[in-house]
Amino acid sequence: MxxxxxxxxxxxxxxxxxxxxYADFSRKSIRTASVNPKTGKTGPGEAFLQGLxxxxxxxxxxxxxxxxFITHGGGAKSSTNDSVARIVWKxx
Length: 92
Known about the structure:
Layout: E1 20-24, E2 29-33, E3 46-49, E4 55-61, E5 67-72, E6 83-87
């Protein structure tokens, strides 16, 4: 998912605008990589959110500038670690 700022201007810092966010199921994390707008090539990946209780499967950017994602604990059946979550950036 490429991060785009919400129409209200709220959301993550400038560093993440236009960056690729991707799920790493096996590491149970969400990672980011910068994207060169001219070539479309990505830079090295870096950890964004680590230590999730289950592997993230899919993400979507909300109109509010938040990143929504789902996790799955693995296996063919549901798990108590399956969830839907929302990431918002808190301004300091």
